[in-house]
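[Help] Beginner question about ligand-bound structures

Sorry if this is basic. My supervisor gave me a protein sequence and a SMILES string for zinc ion and asked me to "get the holo structure". I don't really know what that means in practice or what format the answer should be in. Inputs are pasted below exactly as I got them.
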Amino acid sequence: MVMPLALGFVRPVSAPWIRLSRPANPFLFCGKYPISVSRSQSSRLNRILQASLHSSSVGDSVGAQVSVDQSEIIFIGTGTSEGIPRVSCLTNPNKTCPVCSKATEPGNKNRRLNTSLLVRFPKPSGKCNLLIDAGKFFYHSALRWFPTYGIRTIDAVIITHSHADAIGGLDDLRDWTNNVQPSIPIYTAQRDFEVMKKTHYYLVDTSEVIPGAAVSALQFKIIQEEPFTVHDLQFTPLPVWHGRGYRSLGFRFGNICYISDASEIPEDTYPLLKNCEILILVSPSLSLSVCVYIYIYIFTLDALRPDRSSSTHFGLPKALEEVRKVRPKRTLFTGMMHLMDHDKVNEELIKLKESEGLDVQLSYDGLRVPVTL
Ligand SMILES: [Zn+2]
Ligand SMILES: [Zn+2]
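Answer (accepted):
No worries, everyone starts somewhere. Holo just means with the ligand present. The predicted complex, written as structure tokens, is below.
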């Protein structure tokens, strides 16, 4: 008999918020090739893996299969609005952007589409798939990751704000409502619904649609800045400023906090971040002041202090003040711009684990993190 084991099931002892679950897939996924293993081999291998895993990020993976009773989050997109690579960088005759050049390579983690997160958890009929944001590159993200992870339905979409990189994909939901399910509920703040009335007027008022045109069938549900429940999972809005006077929402579900678009976190929001285990935060590359400092820190370090061992002389960038303030067990940045080289930045960020006990890394498109909700 073949004992099922997938690398994605092995959870490090140091990450108690990520629970062990019974694997269901009869293959060990190593890279992209499945390898079958015997029961004795697998238990030994399991022990070796358990003993050797120290980082909370080791349980993450791309493309690995998971059991139906495992909750997880999947990063559908982790980039800025224009996407990475930028076309303008690729057509620049001087070829001055190494990150965008790398991003053209298949599987490169610098390739990033609009920020979006899929929250998956078990329900009697299978997995519930809740999508946070469907931006203008949603179709391309879904094309890349939905077949990979066997994602069939979209059980709800929760909107952070009404910029194009968060709602530009609402029209693409027609493929689901025409071919998979009758409709999709869209949870949105009133102010963003008012924007959708203009940008997607034919989806809000379907009487505008020419008879026979099969547009997305959406049910708009207005949320306030207070907890609401979607398919039995409670979401707590995390109000933030996304530029002066413009409100955006992050969301807390379980002990996971997701803030994808923000320039400032208001004081009133901090209590909602208490006891956060995984903080997913807008990356240094946007205008979020905390993140600008990280960006400066890392790139100043590279430019002026090639001796990386002396990096601690800079102290930690002010960028990490937010992370320090919240003290999550783990932080994953999202929404990275094209100047953020995945491996290079992560190499620097990983040092914070030893120096300050901060587990901070950049996420990437397709990253799957098993979680407990
Ligand atoms: Zn570029
Ligand atoms: Zn925005």
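A couple of things worth pointing out: The pocket of zinc ion (ligand 2) is lined by residues 161, 163, 242, 261 (CB under 6 Å). The first helix runs from residue 39 to 52. Feel free to follow up in the thread.
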